[in-house]
Design goal:
single chain; Thiol Ester Dehydrase, Chain A; two-stranded parallel sheet; elongated
Length: about 170
């Protein structure tokens, strides 16, 4: 007869996974004069603010918890956004680690008069999910990847994390 060995620690409950599609978020804004520089271009800080907001939406949707921005690994301003243009931001979770979530963001501008669209910005933002009572990091559901594109983003996120941690901790 075998004896059952009981652990004194509570078993960690496995959270059900969520697909990438559950986190996808989109925001649309119009560029107003107060958001531009003297040349009539959207301020980089405004773009970063919008990127952080749409990325947080995706992280929040995936984790169903409060999230805080941990790092911005990369932000690339490819084209300027002009006064009066429409800005469309798209985000989705790329990868989940234990308590952190990497979100990819793409920003596009659209000239409302001509319909011309341009890819203006790409960014990768990492968030940490926090418990609403203790404000301590908490585990998040695993990510379910379904398409080759989602798999590519998932794999690339692991490399970015490796680099980020090496820079942070000198490993």
């Amino acid at each position: 007869m075998k004896r059952r060995i009981e652990s004194k620690q509570e078993p960690e409950t496995e959270l059900p996974g969520k697909p990438v599609s559950a986190s996808r978020s989109e925001m649309t804004e119009i560029v107003l004069p107060a958001q531009t520089n003297p040349l009539g271009k959207l301020l980089g800080g405004q773009v970063m603010h919008l990127v952080d907001m749409v990325a947080a939406l995706a992280a929040h949707r995936h984790s169903n918890s409060y999230v805080v921005t941990a790092s911005v690994d990369y932000i690339d301003f490819r084209n300027p956004v002009n006064l009066g243009e429409i800005v469309n931001l798209k985000s989705q979770v790329n990868r989940v680690f234990r308590t952190s979530i990497e979100v990819g963001v793409e920003v596009y501008s659209e000239n409302a008069l001509t319909g011309e669209r341009r890819h203006t910005t790409t960014a990768y933002v990492t968030f940490v999910a926090v418990d609403e009572h203790t404000r301590m990091p908490k585990p998040v559901p695993p990510l379910i990847v379904k398409t080759p594109e989602e798999r590519r983003r998932f794999d690339e996120a692991a490399e970015r994390r490796k680099t980020r941690l090496a820079l942070r901790y000198g490993r």
